[in-house]
Amino acid sequence: MKYYPNHSDLERHIDHYWIVDNANKLFNNHSEIIAYPGIRPECIILLKGHYSYYYQGVHTQVHKSRVYSFIHEQVKLDMSPLESFVIVQFKPRALSSIIPFLGQSADLLINNPIHNAEDLYGSDFTTMVQKLREVDVPGRVSILDEFFMSVYTSRNEGFISELCSELDENYTLGDIRRLTKYSYSTLERYFKKDTGLTPKRFQTLKRYKSAVEEIYDTRNEDWMHYVVKYGYHDQSHFIKEIKGFTSYTPAQLLKNIGLRSFRPENL
Question: In a 10 Å sphere around its CB, with 0-12 CB exposed, 13-18 middle and 19+ buried, how is residue 103 labelled?
């Protein structure tokens, strides 16, 4: 089930906690679940069991909690051996939503997007995971809140975090230019520092990912709806961009099992 942070500082950067106590039942022995490139960092906390993934030509079996700060390509996951877990999903702001909790530069994270959580956070993270295992599901939210507040550093919040507090979630590059009055070169400097991406690359990823999430959530096959809503030139442009990032057309996406397929929208 989805749970939400109970602290305003966390709410600015963490979208939700996805807490699952019976993953075997949830995934029903699906041996291949696909996650696509995007700008939502995640921390997968293992409570019981393990999983494996295939990414950039390498197959990896995972027995420890991991932080995925940025995903460049499609990831194929086998979650069937996993019994219990928590996924901490950060806001769709690329690295800028996770840096306040890591104290790492965007340059470091963009070049090495997958980390063992214990290596980043040390023994405090290990202690937190043990506490999660000892309480029931609702009690885990306060433990997660306590830990992330303990590693949160407000001075690491950057330009993007401040910007997103003044714009709605459907903002465009044009909206940013009008609000800030900055030149593109100035925006590029800020974006690269906070996200590791250029403004155009960030906005392209944001647009495509929002469309894909809506496709999964609504199963709406009216492709012109997405063209109009997300500002694509035409239907061909929309389909080409979705396929470029996922290797599937929008219609084919609906036939593939994605990690988002299992994630509930509400509590």
Answer: exposed
Q: For 154-158, 173-177, 262-266, which range has the lowest pLDDT when averaged over its residues?
A: 262-266
Residues 46-55 have a mean pLDDT of: 94
Total Cβ atoms within 10 A of residue 126: 14
Q: Estimate to the nearest angstrom the gap between the alpha carbon of 163 and the chain centroid.
A: 19
For helices 199-218 and 184-195, angle between their N-to-C axes, nearest 10 degrees: 60
* pLDDT, tens only, 217-240: 999 999 999 999 999 999 999 999
Phi, psi of 80 (to 5 degrees): -60, -30
Write out the two tokens for 100.
């306040």
Q: Does this model's pTM top 0.85?
A: yes
To 5 degrees, how large is the angle CA 216–CA 113–CA 5? 60
CA dihedral 209, 210, 213, 214 (to 10 degrees): -150
Largest Cα–Cα distance of the chain, in whole Å? 52
At residue 214, φ and ψ (nearest 5 deg) are: -70, -35
Give the tokens for residue 106: 């965007």
Tokens of 186: 């100035």
122-125, long-range: CB < 8 A, 24+ apart: 124/150, 124/151, 125/65
Q: Return the amino acid letter for 242.
A: I
What b/e string do you get for 203-218 counting C-beta neighbours within 10 Å, with b at 16 or more? bbbbbbbbbbbebbee
pLDDT band at 267 (very low <50, low <70, confident <90, very high): very low
